[in-house]
Amino acid sequence: MTAPLPAYYTRLAPFRELFATGAPVLTYHKIGPRPWGARLKGLYVSPKLFAEQMTELHQAGFQTQSLAAVDKPGQAATPVITLTFDDGFENVLRHAVEPMRQCGFRSIEFLVAARLGQLNDWEMRQGEVAERLMDAAQIRDWLAADHEIGAHSMTHPFLTQIPLAQAREEISASKKKLEDLFDVPIRHFCYPYGDCSDAISELAREAGYETACTTEAGVNTTETNPWQLRRVTARYASRNWRNFFGRLKNVKSFARSQKF
Ligand SMILES: [Zn+2]
Predict the structure, then answer these.
(1) How far is the CA of 170 from the centre of ligand 1 (A)?
(2) How many angstroms is it from 193 CA to the middle of ligand 1?
(3) pLDDT tens figures, 186-226
(4) Which value, in Å, is the radius of gyration of the alpha carbons in the chain?
(5) What is the enclosing helix (H) or strand (E) of 179?
(6) What is the value of pTM for the model shown?
(7) Residue 83 phi/psi, 5° resolution?
(8) Span from the CA of 179 to the centroid of ligand 1 (angstroms)
């Protein structure tokens, strides 16, 4: 029996065995220093940790593969991984491109098509700190750095919570808008919040996407529905602080019980 996996990816060792059983896909959101007041702290990965994670994968012999190859696992001679970024944050262009270049890695950024160059309004409505999204010129820089783009809907709604016709529009209009703007085929979709059902994933297939990503944890095998791909989320190892405080509390109660 192997040890249970950590909830989030911070380093390769605990995931190595799992990654060998299929096609792993890593999820990132924001690469940058966590601003004061950030609520979803785990969605930030520091530039230093990101660079360390890339170097570690590179040194372990990993090569990156496009999502287009994810449903054909087990054919590569070297270990492979797919790197994905959700939402299209400017801080990814600033902090992630160089570490990936140094490792010869490529990735895909899922863009919120009606919010290019704007702010993360879907998070700000929940009280989150504002972060700038890449504008069209920055997305062209991203493409020029040999990375891919995919669609992450028009406005980042919970797709299962809006009428099906509206969900269809969010899924298909974002593909068309990005193709028109950047003149590249948009082959991959990512469900906002990972919110997906069989009906919603059918819409992604109908719209002409080759794959669509969820936030369900795991690796992908030939059995995986390409429109319901699994991913592993990379986050700050913030649990360490909780463990630290947890240990501190235990020490105190131990001290109390011993009448120290
Ligand atoms: Zn998102």
Answers:
(1) 13
(2) 6
(3) 999 999 999 999 999 999 999 999 999 999 999 999 999 99
(4) 19
(5) helix 164-182
(6) 0.89
(7) -105, 125
(8) 19
